[in-house]
């Protein structure tokens, strides 16, 4: 339905602008707070125009949060999670769409239903598996009466621990499934006639065709992985080596001395640092992002 | 040269028979057209030959070798799809050369073969384009090039012309025929368009509801349809059918409304007294200004101008007939007219089975009715 009423149009415009301002206001406050010195930022009320100490604050925050180390950790984790999610989603959707096997429906719904089980909901069992990966297998074997002692394999305090539990993705699988279903069957048949096997077809035809889809997924998943807070906080005790950028934020906020006011300027500068990579990724990929979510390339 | 043989081939989808045990031989180098209305199983049959559909029972032999369980790529068939199925992200040359790439043909040889094929299809200037930048006819040619480059033993075409506009369709039809004359590769072509079938085929296989109705050359199928289905399906317009009671002793066919037509009973010596169905093509029916003993009266329902002549849609004793009428013949729709038949061309069908009464004697040269 397209309305062409000037008054209504104006109201809608105003509403849009208001929501936009409301959306941007927190970011503005972060930016302003990050650009003043400690005393100005703790004034009441806080000034609403930027000051001149932005780079100074960024440098302090970078130092204090050990960001030269944790940014690398975060990048490693976010890239690994994104790549893993895309690979897994593409392969599982390929299996679901292009192969006829028993329990295919069940497999799809089992994946789909995990949409309702984000990490936060299953965090305790996930932690216990991460702490001893082989424990569930041991338990199953023990049920059958075999008493096996599998070696303990812990993912705590490691990159694999940060990455692996996040790699399975129902959203990605679903997105890929929808895309594969729009690919005409004739294309798969033409590839068969041309002599290409299923893997070759997947690699040569499906993956290049799904580029827009892949980039959309990469954007969402990179931001998702970068923003992980609870999980790294839970499994990383060796914070000097494995802390991620988001984990560091909590360390930057308090002042060194108990009872002193928090150092908001440094904290907000740290926020800016942590915000930068996901914003950059989104900006760079947004052109394909929208295309990938809306429709497949013709 | 490769022949194909089908032996009591059946296809069942979840309990429903789609093909009911077909036997068919495609002779080496032949251009065979599978013709039938949609849903008759012609595409399924072709896809079974290609290896894209599993065989329920029966055998497919290519060059005398049973290929039921052989992968499509090893059967030596190349297929042109209805929607071309070009790989959208690949250029024309990549599309054409993909089969060779998969087969591991070295790049230099691949390039040489691609340019040879592209040259023969007038695609040389488009090798770097993507399919989306091509016109329908060009896409069609790329699809053909992709099939040709493998030098297949059998070409399979699945309604390849149905997405083209009328003019292009005629041009591509010629090109396909020319290609076949040049290469002489055994070809199976699926279509629902009987004009395409008549113009392209060495032999036509008319299919209906998963069965083969008739196999024959285009003129056999046109002139001697073996069943009422073929009679109505082949030709534009199809054969007109009129119900009657045959009285061989008196040598007349009694129409439902009481009119009688004399016929050459000696041509069908074994014809019993009873219901028959007369089959007559538009060009075998003449409208005359002078009613006589050899004509019957029919009503003109509608007149269609075709260009070289007109088609008069007639109602004769409740059945519909189409007669071909010269442009200068004065005719009014709604009028009662006298029509005469070319009795030498008359076909009789058994209304119960739909099969043709073959008859034993050739038609008399003498024309019983006056013709235009």
Topology:
The complex is a heterodimer of chains A (298) and B (372).
Chain A: H1 6-33, H2 38-41, H3 54-64, H4 67-98, H5 104-113, H6 123-131, H7 135-143, H8 159-167, H9 170-182, H10 185-193, H11 198-209, H12 211-226, H13 230-235, H14 239-242, H15 245-252, H16 264-294
Helix pairs in contact in A: 3-16, 4-8, 4-9, 4-12, 12-16, 15-16
Chain B: E1 4-13, E2 16-26, E3 31-35, H1 42-50, E4 57-62, E5 65-66, E6 77-80, H2 92-102, H3 107-120, H4 136-148, E7 154-158, H5 166-183, E8 186-191, H6 194-200, E9 203-208, E10 211-216, H7 218-223, H8 228-233, E11 240-247, E12 252-255, E13 260-262, E14 274-280, E15 285-288, E16 296-305, E17 310-316, E18 319-325, E19 336-341, E20 347-349
Parallel strand pairs in B: 3-8, 3-9, 6-7, 7-8
Antiparallel strand pairs in B: 1-2, 1-4, 4-5, 9-10, 11-12, 11-14, 12-13, 14-20, 15-19, 16-17, 16-19, 17-18
Helix pairs in contact in B: 2-3, 2-4
Please give a structural write-up:
The complex is a heterodimer of chains A (298) and B (372). Chain A has 298 residues and is mainly alpha-helical. Chain A has a domain at 67-251: MetI-like fold, CATH 1.10.3720.10. Chain A has helices spanning 6-33, 38-41, 54-64, 67-98, 104-113, 123-131, 135-143, 159-167, 170-182, 185-193, 198-209, 211-226, 230-235, 239-242, 245-252, 264-294. The two termini of chain A are 26 Å apart. By secondary structure, chain B is of the alpha+beta class. Chain B has a six-stranded mixed β-sheet, sandwiched between helices. A five-stranded antiparallel β-sheet of chain B has the order 13-12-11-14-20. In chain B, a hairpin with a 2-residue loop joins strand 17 (310-316) and strand 18 (319-325). In chain B, helix 2 (92-102) crosses helix 3 and helix 2 runs parallel beside helix 4. Classes of the chains: A mainly alpha (298), B alpha+beta (372). The A-B interface holds A 184, 186-187, 189-196, 200, 204-205, 208-209, 297-298 and B 50-52, 71-73, 77-79, 81-83, 85-89, 98-99, 102-103, 132, 146, 150.
